[in-house]
Specification:
By secondary structure, the protein is an alpha+beta fold. The protein contains 6 helices and 5 strands, in the order E-E-E-E-E-H-H-H-H-H-H. The strands form 2 sheets. Strands 1-2-5 form a 3-stranded antiparallel beta sheet, with no helix packed on it. Strands 3-4 form a two-stranded antiparallel sheet. It starts with 5 loop residues before the first strand and ends with a helix. The mean pLDDT is 90.
Length: 166
């Protein structure tokens, strides 16, 4: 993602392309898989503020790095401004997870966690699909919304109400 994809004034994020690894060293940028994949998402206030602070920090680091720093405009970069790939992000994320004594989970699973959270908090199916960039809500529900035991509690309570209400 590039800084040009983020509008901190109106708090939006534009998704217009993807980066796909080809082997261990090459990353190919291309259009999204579908027109539904191209979308603009609103940024929660907490994320907007974090990105503002991060951009300011990154600008200071770029100045300190001097002429050797790349200026590709990417949000997540290494010490010299080169865009990070998925492997780099996993290594850095797992280091933070390990340092904080947390359980490791695949970073890709964050997508399912996000969509499950939104679904469980009343976001309508058609908006879930739009958030995910899917043309069909069935894809979103089948592959990304993952109910757990706690999500089934209302069903158990409904059965309990049946027995108690007679």
């Amino acid at each position: 993602m590039r800084w040009s994809d983020i509008d901190l004034e109106v708090a939006t994020l534009s998704i217009a392309n993807t980066r796909t690894p080809m082997g261990n060293r090459t990353v190919v940028e291309k259009d999204t898989k579908s027109m539904a994949g191209e979308r603009v998402l609103p940024l929660p206030a907490l994320v907007r503020e974090a990105l503002k602070a991060f951009r300011a920090t990154q600008a200071k680091e770029r100045l300190a790095a001097g002429e050797g720093c790349e200026s590709g405009g990417y949000v997540l970069v290494d010490e010299l401004g080169a865009a990070l790939n998925g492997r780099h992000l996993r290594v850095r994320a797992y280091k933070i997870v390990d340092e904080n004594g947390l359980r490791r989970a695949r970073l890709y699973d964050a997508r399912a966690s996000c969509l499950t959270y939104l679904a469980n908090n009343g976001v309508p199916d058609h908006l879930l699909a739009m958030w995910a960039g899917h043309t069909n809500v069935k894809t979103t529900k089948k592959w990304y919304v993952k109910p757990d035991v706690a999500d089934l509690l209302p069903a158990a309570e409904a059965w309990g109400g049946l027995a108690g209400g007679v």
